[in-house]
Amino acid sequence: MGSTTLAVQTRGLTAGYGSTPAVHDLDLEVAEGEIAVLLGANGAGKTTTLLALAGELRPMRGTADVLDCGRRSRLDRRARSGLGYLTEGRCVFMGLTGWENLKLGRGKPARALELFPELEPHLGKRAGLLSGGQQQMLALGRILATEPRLVLADELSLGLAPLVVQRLLGALRAAADRGAAVVLVEQHVRHALAIADRGYVLRRGRVALSGTGAELAADADSIGRQYLTGEA
């Protein structure tokens, strides 16, 4: 399972918006070198969990220890400590070229191109003119070029072709194999579990099921029927 040094540890984490919690009493652990996937239907609390881990949402109750930054540290401090956060949607500046997008990152553009060499012929185009897959490679490459200690990725593969999904997930697996911790929210259950060391299934803001990636993959059909088709 990789290193036993924890990059993420939550205990009784409750977080949400205003006075309304969206996740309740979460106990999560992700070690350096591990990928943990968060599964669940829409509204299950996956994005809220990532926002709390990033430091964008303060816990209402419980604790979230992330990269030894302090339990209530803000997003900017966690970013300086090695957090890379790929939010839902396309994390690129649409009016800038691909090259300009890469230059905005803290890592070397050449490193991003080592990970995704298929981007190189398109770097002179505005990011808004790239395909969805190219935009996502650009965003993920910019993050991974910094050699982050922790990557949070929200719906990495949304709307993308299977071959592109495999490229993106493979890049995350390679980053974990180099020592990064990864927390991944993903709709492609089987693809995600194939690269994951552990998984958590959320339902109505609580952990309903957890296990190793292999354990959950063996029961993927049942998980899909019981937890991913709705909140009823």
Write a short abstract of this structure.
It contains nine helices and nine strands. The chain is an alpha/beta fold and 232 residues long.
Explain this structure.
The protein has helices at 46-54, 75-80, 98-103, 109-115, 132-144, 162-177, 189-195, 213-218, 220-227, and strands at 6-17, 20-31, 35-39, 61-66, 83-86, 150-154, 181-185, 198-203, 206-212. The protein has 232 residues and is of the alpha/beta class. It has one domain (6-94, 148-227): Rossmann fold. It has a six-stranded mixed β-sheet, sandwiched between helices. A three-stranded antiparallel β-sheet has the order 2-1-4, with helices on one face. Helix 6 links the parallel strand 6 and strand 7. Helix 4 packs across helix 5. The longest helix is centred in the C-terminal third of the chain and has 16 residues, at 162-177. The radius of gyration is 17 Å and the shape is globular.
Q: Biggest sheet, strands in spatial order?
A: 5-6-7-3-8-9
Q: Mean pLDDT, as a whole number?
A: 93
In the CATH hierarchy, the third-tier topology is known as: Rossmann fold
Helix content: 25-40%
Q: What fraction strand? A: 25-35%
Major sheet details: 6 strands, mixed
Q: Please write the string of helix (H) and strand (E) elements.
A: EEEHEHEHHHEHEHEEHH
What's the structural blueprint in terms of helices and strands?
Layout: E1 6-17, E2 20-31, E3 35-39, H1 46-54, E4 61-66, H2 75-80, E5 83-86, H3 98-103, H4 109-115, H5 132-144, E6 150-154, H6 162-177, E7 181-185, H7 189-195, E8 198-203, E9 206-212, H8 213-218, H9 220-227
Helix pairs in contact: 4-5, 5-6
GO molecular function: ATP binding
Domain ABC transporter: 8-229
Keywords: Amino-acid transport, ATP-binding, Nucleotide-binding, Transport
